[in-house]
Design a protein that fits this description.
Elements lengths: L18 H10 L4 E7 L11 H8 L5 E7 L7 H7 L3 E5 L6 H10 L3 E6 L17 E5 L14 H11 L4 E5 L4 H10 L1
Parallel strand pairs: 1-2, 2-3, 3-4, 4-5, 5-6
Bound molecules: zinc ion.
Length: about 190
């Protein structure tokens, strides 16, 4: 499998007092995606930022805005994130009662759609939807905090997903560094 590797730096890692400069810097150094971790304090234990920050940054960046929604019942806000400038919208399978409906909603705006799975969530939950997805985001930590250790078992999940969906984009999120980056690349 010769999938291209794309680095998606997370805005969470930026200095929040100078976001514009920070995202322009990662763009200058060759990043293609900007990963935007939106947390609501309900689906995950933290609150991060929302649409006002994303729309403010959109004017200053040509990066692909890769929006990772860690929010309960995301359907309520999909249009807001589309309007804010999201290019890819990823929702958690665990955050919506009607995942297929949420996927269709995102697609109805002409945006790329991803589904994310927490470490304990099996691939079975997307079995009947995977053909409709542009991307699957495998969480390699439990979402909600930065700086957690990579969960090794997730490489098995990546391998399994690559077998089920040879063409799909697989994104990984959490604990990725030079060493774990190699492991997930080898896994698929
Ligand atoms: Zn994320």
């Amino acid at each position: 499998m010769n999938k291209k590797i794309i680095i998606a730096p997370s805005l969470l890692a930026a200095d929040f007092s100078k976001l514009k400069e920070e995202i322009q810097e990662v763009e200058k150094y060759g990043a293609e995606y900007l990963h935007l971790d939106v947390m609501d304090g309900a689906f995950v234990p933290n609150i991060s930022f929302g649409t006002p920050v994303i729309s403010a940054l959109r004017k200053h960046s040509n990066l692909v805005f890769d929006v990772h929604l860690m929010i309960e019942n995301p359907d309520r806000f999909i249009k807001d994130f589309v309007d804010a400038g999201a290019d890819i919208i990823t929702v958690h399978a665990e955050s919506t009662k009607h995942l297929n409906r949420t996927i269709q909603l995102i697609k109805s705006y002409g945006k790329k759609v991803g589904v994310s799975l927490n470490p304990s969530t099996p691939l079975d939950v997307i079995k009947y939807d995977v053909q409709n997805l542009d991307m699957v985001l495998i969480m390699t930590v439990n979402p909600g905090f930065g700086g957690q250790a990579f969960i090794e078992k997730m490489t098995d999940k990546i391998k399994e997903l690559r077998t089920i969906a040879p063409q799909i984009d697989i994104e990984v999120d959490g604990g990725i560094n030079e060493e774990t980056g190699k492991k997930v690349k080898e896994a698929g």
